[in-house]
Every structure is written in C-alpha cells, then in structure tokens.
Design brief:
Layout (H helix, E strand, L loop, with lengths): L2 E2 L19 E3 L3 E4 L10 E7 L3 E9 L22 E7 L7 E7 L4 E6 L14 E7 L2 E9 L11 E10 L4 E4 L16 E4 L10 E15 L2 E18 L2 E9 L25 H4 L25 E2 L2 E2 L2 E11 L2 E10 L9 E10 L4 E9 L8 E15 L3 E14 L7 E10 L3 E10 L15 E10 L7 H5 E4 L1 E10 L4 E15 L4 E13 L3 E4 L2 E3 L2 E13 L6 E12 L2 E13 L5 E14 L2 E17 L2 E10 L4 E13 L2 E12 L11 E12 L2 E2 L1
C-alpha cells in the first residue's frame, strides 16, 4: 500500500527525506530468472508514496560489489539491456490489458512506453516524469516521480495493477515483486500485484498546452539556395474524461525527430521503417490491430501521414482522441496536410475502438479514410478479436486471435479483403505459434502498410529452449534454443511464390551473457517478372531453390566493449552471396560517452553480374547529464552514394520543456566512375527549437 507524503520529496536520488519513513514498503524482490525463487545477494527495497499530485517510488538496490554496476547510456530511450536498472509497471485502468512502463538505469537515464501486448513493450511514448539516481558504497538508489497528470486513470480508483523489476546486468539476473516464474513476462498485467492507497491522486484540470518556436536555415548546394525562416506551432491536450484525452495540433513540426536507420534491401518488397514522431507515437497503442501481423500488414501506419514520395508533407493541423472509457479503448485521428509539389493537400482519418469483454477477450474495429496522394479515394474497415490467458494448463501463456479487413475507393478489380488468425503459446521451455493470413490482390490500405498483397501466408514456429540444471553444461550454458520456423507464401491461385525453413540447430546463451548461433535456411523464390536485385544485375523470371547458412557471435551487453559478428553464406538465386555485418560499440564508465560502429557488406556473385552493397553507420553520443545529450549519427551506403550526418543537442530544461539544436548535412560522390573522389556537399540544415509544456 502506498504511503501518504506529508512533507516534500526532493528528487536527488537520496532517500533521506522524512516522507520516505511514511512510505509503503516492499521489503524485497524475488528472483525470477535464471532460478525462480532462489536466494541472491542482491537485496532490493522499494518504497511507494503519493502526495495527491505525484506517485513517488524510492528504490534501494544493494550490491555486494558496486564497482561492477553496469551503465552504458544516459540517453532517453537509449536502450538498457546491458545496464543495471529498475522497471515499474502500472495498470491504472484495472483491465489487466493496458499498462504504463517506466524504467531508469543506475545513471538516471529513462525510458517509457504504453502497451497492450505483454510480449512486446514499445518505447515510442515519451511521458512527462522524472528520476534521479545515486551510486553508493552499498549499491545504488533511485527516486522516481510520476505526476498524476501524466497518467490516465479512473477517478477515485484506489487499487492499481503494479509490478516492479530489478535487472542486474553482469549476472543477467531478474528480481521481481510478482510474476516470478520463467513463463511470466513483466508486461503481463495478469501476473502483476496490486497497489492500494492511490485513490487520492489528482489529475487536475487535465489541460496541457505545448507551444513551440523554431528558427530553421536550409542551404541547397545545387542550385545554390539558402532559406531561413522562423516558425511556431501548438499542441493542446485536454482530458475529456479521467481516462480520455483530446489533442489539437496546429502547424505540427518534427524537426527534432531522429533520422531513420538506413537498410539494404535485397527483396522485391518495400522495407519497414518505424514511426519516431512524438505526435503520432503518443497514444499509438490505441491503434494497434490484430494479432500476428507484425510488419506484414498494418491497417493504419502513421508514417503515411506527413510523408509522401520521399518528402515531408507539412501538417496544417489535426485533432486526436486517445484513451479509454471504462471497457472501451478509443483512438481517433484526423489531420489536414498542406500542398506539396507531388500531391495536393488532403484530409486523412483513422479511427479505432476496442471493447474488453473480460480480462481475457478484447474485440475491436478499425477504419481509415483518405489518400496521401490527395487525388484518389481510399478507405479501409476491419474487425479483430484477441483472447489471452496466463493460466492455460495452470500457469502457461496462450493467445488466440483473428482479424478481417476490406478496402474500398479507387481500386483495381480483384479481391479487396483480407483475413487471418494466430495461435500463440509463448513460454520459456516451449514457444510455439501458427499464423495464417490472406491478402487480396486489390486490398490497398493507402494509410497502411502492406508490402505483399495477393497472397496466402502460412507461418509456424517451434522453439524448444531447455535450461541445463546439472552437469558441466549447467556451469557454462544458461539456455539452449532449438528453433524451426517454416514459412510458405502462395498466390491467390495456390501457386507457391516463396517458402523458407529457418532452423537453429545451435543457439546457445552462455551464463556469461555471450551468444553463439548457427543457422541453416533453405529457401525457394518464384519470379514471375525480372527482378533487378542491384543496379544492372537482373535475375530473369523462373523458380529458384537455394540454401543460406548463418553464423552469429555476440558478446554480453553488460560489457564496456560489445562486439557482434554475423555472416550469411551460401547459394542465392542463380549464384552465391555472402553477407557480413560487424558491429562494435564502446561505452566509458558511467555511460557518459558511447561510440558505435556498424559495417555491413554484401558480396553477390551471379551469372547476371557481380555486385557489392555496402552500409556504414557511425554513432557517437556524449551525455553531460541525463537531461543534456549531444549525439552525432553518420550513415553511408553505396547504393545512393550518399553520406548523411545528423547531429542533435537535446537539453531537457525540466520534464516537458526541451531545447534542441539540430544540424543535418548531406554529401554525395559526384559520379559512380569517380567513387573514391572527395565527397561533395548536397544540402545543409540547421534548426534551433524550443518546446514548452504547461499543465493544469
């Protein structure tokens, strides 16, 4: 039960305020992995306080050797898999399906997310909250402050779903309050405990105003042209109910958004790039649809809004409604885009509703309308249902779901519908799944993502993952993973278009944290039309059977130096291909400086011609403090012959108020024949931006 603070809490990572003596206390956490329930030398004490406006957590992490506490980042959402960290799960709705995730590492870096799928917690939501940590002679401590205004919850509800987890990186040890079996995931709210005493938290008026102002200078080198402009915009959010918020955006800007990570595409289908723009990521969980779809089909893909033909599309304004109302989940988005050279402005709409029949079954519907090209009509509607349990056969996880969609508008003749289902048994010893999907050849979600219409897809996976408990294996091996994943894709007429069988006869996770994996993947591809796999290298139509072999070696993520080597070998269509990717990263003690290098090379040897695809990525991040981060990210690929660099300084003056300085610069090789000549500048852009948030 949370205690009530009667005196102030100063957020400095030291639990020395009088208020902490009034806190509710969780005396210790239980080992969840690798040996559930076994004693450890890593005692943990969690204190919980509320003061009406804020939920506070004070955590003391005892460590027998504090000098080995691992820290690799101070960056917001910087990735903490190799760091000593504390994570907190909150279920203010009490529906056991929708949760908030907050995590802080020993250096005070923060990451957060809102989710509905217990198997995956996306980190694309940035809530307004704060945390401070302190290293001590006995370990480390953390103070976490989560304002009630950051959360949506039923007014007066006195009990929330709650769980807390500690990760000891060097031991790869998980300690948890509730849900301490190997099959239990932190994100599974059905296995969470309960936090009482939170009925006094107040959301206030529920009004949030976030204006921004910026100055942007853009220079194109050919033809030489420089433009400098000042701009401003506004986001206004208002709680229409304690669980439901309406958002108005005017002249939305995404200048501070991180650039996409470049990828090499050797397939016939478009690549997937995740959404990173904060206006769209906030509340994105309410638009999630179906089960087992992943990147094969997304009915509403927010990157279709504000991006078209490789160019950014200005957003004149929009409204959004996200949140819950009792058992109902609601997501509504309507945006008006401006005219650009490739397309006139258009109005784009997406809506999603869900209903929780009980704590296991959720049903829903989705609809979209509009086309980013501003010319053609397009619409989509769909329904889905997902049933989840964590008590199947006693304490096992099981999920079953189905979905169906149809599209309309200016579409060609053909089948305009799609449907599918998934059965999933995701557990520690056995992880088994089967999915079936059908996509009509005229199914066209203009506001969605569907790379391969006109297909039937059958996919299954079986992983047997034993953990040795005795013998010499137990001293070296944490877990074996023997995997088999066959996939078959046919046309609507039943003709096989492709199939593959991914196997992992060797996949070993060592006690030290290192991974060793060997794979064999036989494949088949049918080409009904010529396929230009690289510039000037065209594979003719036909049926092709080939075998790919993979070796991957990976060092533990808790180490200062991290190295991953991955090599794919074997036949490929009419010849052979070798793919080699090497990543190396280094972090200074304390996580102030991060350096990362990725080298990717693909060497193809085909009768139609040889080719080399190359990708180089270099990242450097220096953290003066968790709230003041300077990052630089450079990428080069020999397909575009373009080198791009994105540099960004982010200063979080206080939670919700950020100052950015962003510099983007691009260079290109002048010609393919002169590949190694000096790079020539193409464009240059500098942005200074301030965003302020006021809440009441």
């Amino acid at each position: 039960m949370a205690g009530v603070a009667t005196s102030p809490v100063k957020l400095d990572g030291v639990l020395d305020e009088t208020a902490w003596q009034q806190a509710g206390v969780i005396g210790n956490l239980t080992q969840q992995s690798p040996r559930p329930g076994a004693p450890t030398s890593f005692a943990t004490e969690v204190r919980v306080l509320v003061d009406g406006d804020t939920l506070y957590l004070g955590v003391t992490c005892f460590d027998p050797d504090p000098s080995k506490i691992a820290v690799h980042t101070m960056q917001r959402d910087g990735g903490m898999d190799g760091d000593d960290a504390i994570a907190v799960i909150l279920d203010p709705f009490g529906d056991r399906t929708t949760g908030y995730f907050f995590q802080v590492n020993a250096a005070g870096a923060r990451q957060d997310g809102v989710y509905t799928d217990p198997e995956e917690i996306p980190l694309d939501w940035d809530g307004i909250w704060d945390a401070r940590t302190r290293l001590t002679s006995q370990g480390w401590t953390a103070e976490i402050a989560i304002p009630a205004k950051t959360l949506r919850f039923p007014r007066g509800r006195g009990v929330w779903g709650f769980n807390v987890e500690r990760w000891v990186a060097r031991e790869r040890l998980v300690l948890r309050w509730n849900g301490t079996t190997l099959d239990a995931r932190l994100g599974d709210l059905r296995r969470a405990g309960e936090l009482a005493g939170v009925e006094g938290l107040r959301q206030g008026l529920g009004l949030s105003v976030s204006p921004y102002g910026l100055v942007k200078s853009t220079h194109d080198f050919s033809p030489k042209d420089t433009q400098t402009k000042a701009d401003a915009g506004l986001d206004v959010s208002y709680n229409l109910g304690p669980e439901l918020a309406g958002v108005l955006t005017i002249n939305t800007d995404f200048a501070e958004t991180e650039v996409d990570t470049r990828q090499i595409n050797l397939t016939r289908f478009p690549l997937f790039y995740p959404e990173k723009r904060q206006f769209f990521t906030d509340g994105a969980n309410e638009f999630e649809f179906g089960i087992g779809l992943a990147e094969e089909f997304i009915p509403f893909f927010s990157r279709r809004v504000g991006l078209y033909g490789g160019e950014q599309v200005p957003l004149l304004g929009g409204v959004k409604l996200v949140g819950r109302q009792g058992r109902w989940g609601i997501g509504v988005l309507d945006v008006q885009t401006d005219d650009i050279r490739q397309a006139p402005g258009s109005n784009l709409f997406a809506g999603r509703v869900t209903f929780d029949v009980d704590q296991h079954l959720r049903v829903g519907a989705i609809a979209t309308y509009g086309n980013p090209d501003g010319v053609h009509d397009n619409s989509l509607a769909g329904v889905d249902a997902t049933w989840r349990s964590s008590t199947f056969r006693g304490d096992k996880n099981l999920a079953v779901g189905a979905w169906a969609v149809g599209s309309g508008g200016d579409l060609p003749d053909g089948e305009r519908t799609g449907y599918g289902f998934k059965i999933d048994y995701p557990n520690d010893l056995w992880d088994i799944m089967f999915t079936y999907k059908e996509f009509g050849d005229a199914l066209d979600p203009a506001l969605g993502f569907l790379p391969r219409p006109g297909t039937h897809s059958y996919a299954s996976g079986v992983a047997y993952q034993p953990r040795p408990k005795q013998g010499w294996w137990a001293g070296w091996v944490r877990q074996f993973k023997f995997e088999l994943e066959p996939v078959v894709v046919t046309g609507l007429n039943g003709t096989t278009q492709s199939w593959s069988v991914f196997t992992a006869p060797v996949n070993v996770e060592l006690q030290s944290g290192e991974d060793i994996e060997l794979n064999w993947q036989p494949q088949f591809e049918r080409l009904d039309a010529p396929f230009e796999i690289a510039e000037g290298v065209v594979i003719p139509p036909g049926s092709y059977r080939f075998d790919r072999y993979r070796v991957e070696l990976k060092t533990s993520e808790h180490r200062a130096w991290q190295i991953t080597t991955e090599v794919w070998l074997g036949t490929f269509f009419t010849g052979r291909m070798t793919e080699w990717e090497q990543t190396v990263s280094y972090t200074t003690p304390g996580g102030h400086l991060q350096l990362g290098l990725l080298l990717g090379d693909i060497f193809g040897y085909l009768p139609q011609g040889d080719f080399i695809e190359r990708l180089l990525q270099l990242k450097a991040v220096y953290a003066f403090a968790p709230d003041l981060i300077l990052s630089c990210y450079a990428q080069y690929d020999n397909d575009s012959n373009n080198l791009g660099m994105n540099s960004r300084l982010r200063w979080t003056i206080r939670p919700g108020t950020d100052f950015y300085v962003v510099w983007n610069h691009g260079w290109v090789h002048p010609s393919d024949e002169d590949r190694w000549s000096a790079l020539k500048p193409v464009n240059d852009q500098a942005v200074v931006k301030l965003r302020y948030t006021w809440r009441s």
